Amino acid sequence: MPTTDICHHHLSETDSTNSQLLAAMLASFGQVNANNQTLPNSAMNWQPQPHYTRPYRLTADHQRAGRGQHGRVWQSPLGNLYYSLYIPSEKYADDAVRKTGWALARPLDGRLSLCVGYQLAQLLAGKGIDTTRHHPAASSLGVKWVNDIGWYIGADFCKLAGILLEPVTAHGNMLGVVMGVGINVAHAPDLPPQAAVDYRAVALADVLAAAQLPPLADLAQAVDGALMQAVAQFNGLYDAQTVPIFCQQFATVDLLLGKRVQVLPTQGDTPPIVGVGQGIDAAGCLQVRLSDCAHHATVTRIWNGRVRVLDAETLTI
Question: Name one GO molecular function term (predicted).
């Protein structure tokens, strides 16, 4: 089944493509199991109609309430890609989907986001971004653990794209996952001071000539392919051989590798952690070496948190 066969619908505007697709999939599950439940009015006219047993892509020209990680707002001006793709769990996928491998064959964990980031970085790097940026201090395009894509200029992160994965659960069962992707194509959003973010937004238009910018419909289809590769990659993380291979692959796009970083916990009163990025471990955790002294180094595993690079130097790990 080629990616062109993925059911999809496009909206001129919506609150959030992730929220809309989540609601539609939950409603389709209810429609099967309770005759008095129907799809949300906003999804009734989608053609084809979404169903929780099959992949489905939703895109929009504009989001009124786009969402990012940690409850942040995703600014959504016209001209950028706002994209969500639903993938069913293998348990709930129909037979045709199960045969294609376009279903989650293993329990969801944070490594799926890393697989998505890796594949999107490969896709966007293929647009020639690294050869069109002329800043001498710019890094290659890559992934900032765990769900941001862009590059560093010195210690300043330039964010081109973001990822938001959300499970679709009903009655304690995971029907599937919605994978949200936002890519700044024509415009880098203006981030107000109150946004309190530690990056600056950039767009493809900042580094590519107008003639090189991909049409949004073509880019969405390319993202389909990248995300399907990510699902296949994630499904393959099942033994002691494939996991180290993925860790090595991710290291090629890991923007924090060898960088002195500060990790701010997302919850509680835990103090910040300062150390040197050591890549990811088998579970997808960020590894941080807490001492620069090789003989007394302690490596800690980070499950979640906000990370910022403290200086431009890349240290030997």
Answer: biotin--[biotin carboxyl-carrier protein] ligase activity
